[in-house]
Write a structure and sequence with these properties.
The chain is of the alpha/beta class. It has helices spanning about 35-40, 45, 85-90, 110-120, 135-145, 160-170, 180-195, 205-220, 240-255, 275-280, 305-310, 320-335, 340-355, 390-400, and strands at about 5-10, 15, 30-35, 80, 95-100, 125-130, 150-155, 170-175, 195-200, 230-235, 260-270, 315-320, 365-370. The strands form three sheets. It has a six-stranded mixed sheet with strand order 4-5-13-10-11-12, with helices on both faces. α4 (about 110-120) runs parallel beside α5. It starts with a strand and ends with a helix. Bound molecules: pyridoxal-5'-phosphate (PLP).
């Protein structure tokens, strides 16, 4: 039985499953599954007894053998309801998917659990990635888990804690004087000589499939009732493709019905190629004074596809400023959520869309907090907090 194969998103030609991402026509290849085969073992009842990890959906993941799975306990992150915010905002329901609780502190764990499993299954011993940070630490962790070598290339201003994290996992770490696409060129150029496999965005089919599990999980956690709107912080865009793919497969399985959620990409103003593509402008902005986060991808490889999927779901894309992101980080913090700048950007996007009336009282909304605030600590100014020794000191500070 053939579990899955690759189908071109442009010309619909199919080919056997493999570690390739481009069709001869140049189109992006997507994994397609024999869903009738999947249904034999993947049932809603069966899910009740499965592991609390993304591998509970193994029938919809591209590994051939279960013992090839490289796992650190990724996925099955909480989806929590924001009841206090709901009482104040003109919307029906609001949830946050807490992706920062993944093994490497970001949703990138999912993509690399899946991608590294595929490499491992084929005996590949060395992998590389161009990254803004979280992909690097995820590749490093999963390679370490599998006993493989990782080479990671991140911009010079990558948050220090993430660099440290990569080193702790034993990766070969290089700082690149440039953006993520400059790092990408280094990885591509070196692959023949160095013998590393390029696990960059949309270079192999595993990462999108891993990210897809965010959508599967969210649907299961909402008892197969999809929300009206999903706000997602977008960089390279494979998260959006993954979510879209999840809902399409669930529809084909007959587990969800009706319209797909309106997908919204949030980017940081100044590095907003997806927003520009949705609005029909050419990509603009220098990107150099935007934050060194997962959103800083000036040249996403499949910008057109992302814009198309957003439009297809009647979604949109918004650019929010650094100031709005900082404010949003505090707004989520005050609700108990440790949000990375990217995760906080979704809250800022939500505020904007409510203001514009694009999100209203009938809408249930899910925000994705893709990473933990702590990883970006070095980007914050040193906090000023009073130092005290006695209660009298406390009283003094409280008065001032
Ligand atoms: C990589 C990353 C993003 C962007 O995700 P894409 O799927 O590449 O669009 C968003 N947030 C965080 C924390 C990231 O690490």
């Amino acid at each position: 039985m053939i579990k899955c194969w690759l189908t071109c998103m442009k010309c619909a030609q199919t080919q056997p499953m493999g570690l390739v991402s481009r069709c001869a026509c140049g189109g992006l290849l997507a994994v397609e599954y024999d869903l009738e085969l999947a249904k034999r073992t993947l049932t809603k009842e069966a899910l009740a007894d499965r592991a609390s990890s993304m591998w509970r959906y193994i029938e919809l993941l591209p590994v051939q053998r279960e013992n090839a799975v490289v796992s650190l306990g990724e996925g099955w992150t909480p989806l929590i309801r924001m009841t206090r915010a709901e009482a104040q905002l003109p919307l029906k329901r609001l949830y946050v998917k807490r992706e920062e609780q993944n093994p490497t502190g970001s949703f990138k764990s999912r993509g690399f659990s899946s991608a590294v499993s595929l490499l491992h299954e084929r005996g590949i011993a060395k992998a590389a990635v161009p990254s803004n940070g979280n992909a690097a630490s995820a590749l490093a962790a999963y390679c370490a888990r599998a006993g493989m070598e990782a080479y990671v290339f991140v911009p010079q201003d990558c948050p220090e804690l993430i660099i440290q994290e990569c080193l702790n996992y034993g990766a070969h770490v290089y700082l690149v004087d440039g953006f993520i696409h400059d790092a990408g060129r280094i990885v591509e150029e070196g692959k023949a000589t160095e013998g590393w496999f390029n696990t960059g965005t949309m270079r192999e089919p595993g990462r999108v499939e891993g990210k897809k599990t965010m959508g599967l999980e969210m649907a299961e956690q909402l008892e197969w009732q999809l929300p009206d709107v999903i706000v997602y912080p977008t960089g390279g865009g494979s998260g959006i493709i993954g979510l879209w793919k999840a809902f399409r497969e669930l529809k084909e399985l007959g587990w969800v019905h009706g319209e797909l959620p309106r997908l919204v990409s949030v980017q940081e103003a100044g590095c907003q190629p997806i927003v520009d593509a949705v609005q029909g402008f050419g990509a603009g902005g220098s990107s150099s004074d935007t934050l060194p986060t997962g959103l800083r991808v000036p040249e996403p490889p499949d910008c057109g596809i992302i814009a198309e999927l957003l439009k297809q779901t009647k979604g949109t894309a918004v650019a929010v400023t650094q100031g709005e992101i900082m404010k949003a980080q505090q707004a989520l913090g005050k609700q108990g959520i440790s949000a990375s700048p990217e995760g906080a950007a979704t809250w800022a996007g939500l505020m904007r869309l409510i203001e514009e009336g694009w999100i209203g009282t009938d809408d249930s909304v899910v925000l994705f907090n893709t990473s933990h605030a702590i990883k970006y600590e070095s980007l914050q100014p040193k906090p000023t907090v009073p130092v005290i020794r006695t209660y009298a000191n406390f009283v003094h500070w409280k008065r001032n």
